[in-house]
Amino acid sequence: MRPPSGNTNITLSRAGRLSARFFVLMIKSNQNEKLKLVRKLRDRKHREREGLFATEGEDLLEAGLAAGAEQRFVLVAAGSGLEGDEIEPGLLTDVSSLGSGTRVIAVWSIPPAKTPLSPHSGNNRLFTTCLYLQGVGDPGNVGTIVRTADAFVDAAVVLGPGCADPYSPKAVRASMGSIFSQPPSWGGIEETPRPRAALVAHGGEGLDALDGAATICLGAEREGLPDEVLAECETRVTIPLRPGGAESLNVAAAAAIAAQRISSLAMPEGQSDA
Known about the structure:
CATH 3.30.1330.30, 2 domains, 35% helix, 18% strand, disordered N terminus
């Protein structure tokens, strides 16, 4: 039998090299260093130490890319057609924090925080520049408030003592990508601009009192804001609830109502809200 021609040998040799390269690039071990890092980033201490956090899913990947965030690497399920380091789907599911798994996990540098700015005026209007949170320990609420700030008032979010990490998996998912465009900062009430309005469950003024506020302060649902924060606020505001209904609001819902009110108060007459 005649041996294959030289050209055929060259073709087979190239195919073999391409095949070998493919299997080198495919991540097939749960001891891979990138997988180890993703697992570490589930814990706050490692996120803070490394200055990194992880996202799961195509929507958050697109949000990070659109914001120009600094990306370290992307892991994608083999055969998904997505760009990144291919990994056996089972291994990606194992490292995912989602019960249903995911097709893509990206690791990013924690972006620079958007710090509070002094209120600025124009056409006799004042705009809110900050949402200050203290004691908001649920990461889902923190992430939702970051998204709210991005949606309504383009406000800086300042996280005071007792707040959840905004880069935890739950908070990042709740932010729906706003963690990239509206990265929060850590600080105390003294680092936020005046005038300040505190949201309180009872006894405050109506929502119109938010007009002109530079910072809206929100506390834990059960404890509310501590006295030292209330002492730094010029105004206390209570969201009216219907008689006989629920006694209080979720803190993220309260933030959304206040932010929407601020947005509507700041809107020039005749400007469309669409």
